[in-house]
Amino acid sequence: MQPISLTGIKPTGNPHIGNYFGMFRPAISLTEKYLGMYFVADYHALTSLHDPAELRELVYEVTASWLALGLDPKKSIFFRQSDIPEIPEFTWILSCFTAKGLLNRAHAYKAAIDKNVELGRDPDDGINAGLFYYPVLMAADILLYGSDVVPVGLDQRQHIEITRDIAEALNRTYGTLLKLPEGVIQENVQSIPGIDGQKMSKSYNNTIPLFAEDKLVRKQVMRIVTDSKSPKDPKDPDGCNLYNIYKFFAPQDRLEDVRQRYIQGGLAYGDLKKELADLILNYFKEARIKYNELMADRGYLDAVLADGAQRVRAIAQPILKKTRQAIGIE
């Protein structure tokens, strides 16, 4: 069987250009070497999202985004986490071999506690058990399909380490039962700044959305923070937030020309922002058209998710059966 690469995506709304360069494009490129498995992590979303209508809509948006940006559901497997009934059972089994101390050290849980302490609240205020057990569910997502690699950012490396620790605990008890996955930190993944110069993130409200209306995309581009220098003044392109976004979209010869105008003077930020907006809209033109078509055809999106669930369950069920037999409940 072809080695498996697994990517989980929380349904968090309209993706932005930072998501494309940092997640979508590199994850899809892995299908050249691996059987790519991609799932919408709607169970994970329940730790903070409790509006059923919003959750359903977000699942559709995520699915349409991946398909519009080039994911081929026939060459890979795309599914919804909650369509896999084996996941909750497997999660419980894994939790019984997970040291509580391991979960105490999980970054998301520690960050939530630290924030409460900083605000003078009870350390566990507002923290549900889902957030605490989040790493176990993630381990189940990875181990149930025999994943070989999981592409992650540096900030997610701990999740792979926890997953391996849990798998090793079962393997020490029952022999070689679960495959140990490897985290793939993709060094060539490109990081794109937000309109304020920080990392582009919905948390900072500094994004340029992929599939919003043209007017909103242009508005966000025009909000890119620049200095107060006049067009005639020389400027440092590498220290300019606008240039550091522009370079992802401009043709090489045009980029060189703009760079020289920065250095020598003669560049107006407003003109470059208008050009950048045109470049972004043109770059994603076909994807934006396809996204809107997909969002108008929920029946097709449902069919993609259903087919993906059927295919991935065929991989998951033998692993769960083997695990149940090993621990003595089948």
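Next protein, fold it too.
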Amino acid sequence: MALARMDNIVKRFGAVTALDGASLEVEVGEVHALLGENGAGKTTLMRILAGRLSPDAGEVWLDGKRITRFTPQEAQRQGVAMVAQTFTLVLPLTADENLRLALRDRRAIKRAKELADELGWQLRWDAEVAALSVGERQRLEILKALAVNPRLLILDEPTSVLTPTETEALFGLLRRFVAADRALIVITHRLSEVAQVADRVTVLRQGRKVATVPATTPTEELARLMVGEVTVTETKLSRGQVGEVVLQVRDLWVRGDDGRWAVKGVGFTVRSGEIVGIAGVDGNGQQELMEAIWGLRRWERGEIRFMGAKGFASPCKWWRNGAALLPPDPMRRMLVLAWSLTRNAALRRQVEEQGWWLNWAKMRAIAEEWRQRFGVRAPSGDASLVNLSGGNRQRWALAMALAEPKRLFLLVNPTQGLDVASTKTVHALLNQLRADGAAILLVSTDLEEVLTLSDRVLVMFAGQLREAERQREAIGALMGGVGFEEERGATISAAS
């Protein structure tokens, strides 16, 4: 029995056609995976089903009834809940206050906190959401959606910042969820997860449904359906010549917004020609560490040096002196979504060159070159970022950070929300930058990414840092805190 059906859905945003006759059918009691390249229309299709957008054409049916009113309130009344990549949280309020604001029911609030305990998610309920990491915010959104006990739950990239252990626990919970006459739709770019959680898979390409197949379909075939041909290949790593120290951090102590130590005596080096990866569950001090390095957060004790000299007090100065930054939330901290690609590129140039007079013909040419090089699906450089998919916005943020050579790249979750082909392209580019002599500090919650790219792996837990062997089991144990207990509160040096 079909719980939800979408027939020939069309949706346009100005000159961009996001959906061009897409269809989907989800049955009661199933987990349905939705796959496709960035810009294929996955999130747009789900936003229509969740009442957040109205289609330009096509029909939507829930429980055999045609839906004509597309509002979040109507979707909620019909038992549909969605956790999108763009969060719906009030930043100045605490996590607990956001939970109460969204649920307004004591039993649902209690259920959300019980689910957090069941999943092993440590949430700082008294902390303002603005102070939470991206991963903590995502967990809060998932708990909000599960607590209202919807009939149809839509999750957009739910495991993008979860560890393998957390992912396994969430999948177990979702399996129990659909067993009670419900259904789940999961948007994911991690093809390895499809067989773990889903029953069937629908693949979209360029706004249209390509196929609906069993979740047991080989990943190579799923990739072919997504891109039209098998173009996803393994990244061949070419190690560069490791040279001088470019970034050095010594005995760094940083407080979080709650006044407690978020970074405790951290030290490490990054040399030219190498990638140093920092793994760990989001919320263990990575954000505060990177903010301190960028000059966005004051540190109590320690030292940060770039090319032997004192580090800089602002991101602008890092840019001007040969470093590139990719923050953990580029949509909020790097891009102006209401602006065009060209104007965003011009803003970065102004920051870098400290000039106000710009050659707009040159900037349009630069924006177009970046757009094509990074595969950003937009009609032109004059397209507004607000009309692009989340994956294409991430591609544009990467273009702004990686398109030009720098001595140092400070990157947080660079491939978050990207499809398989785009991820491989980014990995190949980082590999080439390393071979050309750049120093790269990579902070990623994707353990596979850290293992694939890094010359050295550090693990961050509860504000502390340790160097790990390049073995999945050893890194996973450290990510869970094993081996840190005896050193809590002590100064740790992971420099090499």
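About the second fold: The longest helix spans residues 420-435.
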